[in-house]
Specification:
single chain; alpha/beta; Rossmann fold; six-stranded mixed beta sheet; four-stranded antiparallel beta sheet; 9 helices; 10 strands; binds adenosine-5'-diphosphate; binds magnesium ion; transport; ATP hydrolysis activity; ABC_ATPase_HisP-typ; AAA+_ATPase
Length: 246
């Protein structure tokens, strides 16, 4: 098999908020077309790590290397870098005053600056992909949480990112709506999208994840393929965590 390209490489990343040391010497890599699931209890630093990766937070030190290039705000145009890194949040954050279609074409027309008719065409294809082709002209408030999150995924994809980051994408959903969003994410993974997913859905992590990263108290405690991670964890911390999730 051909060697997979490295999309993201993080080396010795540290981040504090005042006296609170939130990320401690994080080393991690994400290979092209892989799904990396980031798990750990609340407060362990998962969101901060994603936000550093997307340059919504500024690292204190360490390296973030995207597709071979070390990124340092100040030397690069961060907005350009961010275009390659899509993000899907727990609370979908759709624009409430725009229809589904308008939500999706907003960034492609204003940031990617593609013609509107092309953006509309691409948006419609994405809506087919997430199973919402009949919701084009509907406002977000008329959709279920699961549908809104699928629109948010389509909106992120419309920027044609090289990697998509998900921060607990199903945590705000009623239980009966979780499955449809996970199915959409699974289909994306099967299409070869590179993804980092913060999740408490261990079934998804086990089934769809190519690699599991477990964080505790700002450190990566254990990192392994799902077969190994879930069946034969090495660290005591991991075993304790897995007991609380099943
Ligand atoms: P997780 O996503 O794993 O629950 P977070 O990355 O959100 O963890 O938070 C890690 C720690 O950093 C927590 O103690 C949290 O309170 C703290 N924290 C997160 N964001 C900020 C911030 N902007 N200012 C101060 N403390 C923060
Ligand atoms: Mg979080």
């Amino acid at each position: 098999m051909e060697e997979q390209k490295t999309i993201v490489r993080i080396k010795k990343l540290n981040k504090s908020f005042g006296d609170l040391h939130v990320l401690k010497d994080i080393d991690m890599k994400v290979l092209e077309s892989d799904v990396v699931c980031l798990i750990g209890s609340s407060g362990s630093g998962k969101s901060t790590l994603l936000r550093c990766l997307n340059f919504l937070e500024k690292k204190d030190n360490g390296q973030i290397i995207i597709e071979g290039e070390e990124i340092n705000p100040g030397t690069q145009d961060i907005n350009k870098v961010r275009e390659k890194i899509g993000m899907v949040f727990q609370h979908f954050q759709l624009f409430p005053h725009m229809t589904v279609l308008e939500n999706i074409i907003e960034a492609p027309t204003h940031v990617r600056k593609i013609p509107k008719n092309q953006a509309v065409e691409e948006a419609k294809e994405l809506l087919v992909k997430v199973g919402l082709e009949d919701k084009t002209d509907v406002y977000p408030s008329k959709l279920s949480g699961g549908q809104q999150q699928r629109v948010a995924i389509a909106r992120a994809l419309a920027m044609k990112p090289d990697i998509l980051l998900f921060d607990e994408p199903t945590s705000a959903l009623d239980p009966e709506l979780v499955g449809e969003v996970l199915t959409t994410m699974k289909e994306l993974a099967e299409d070869g999208m590179t993804m980092v997913v913060v999740t408490h859905e261990m079934g998804f992590a086990r089934e769809v994840g190519d690699w599991i990263v477990f964080m505790h108290d700002g450190r990566i405690v254990e990192s392994a393929p799902p077969e190994v991670f879930f069946s034969n964890p090495r660290e005591e911390r991991t075993k304790e965590f897995l007991k609380t999730t099943s």
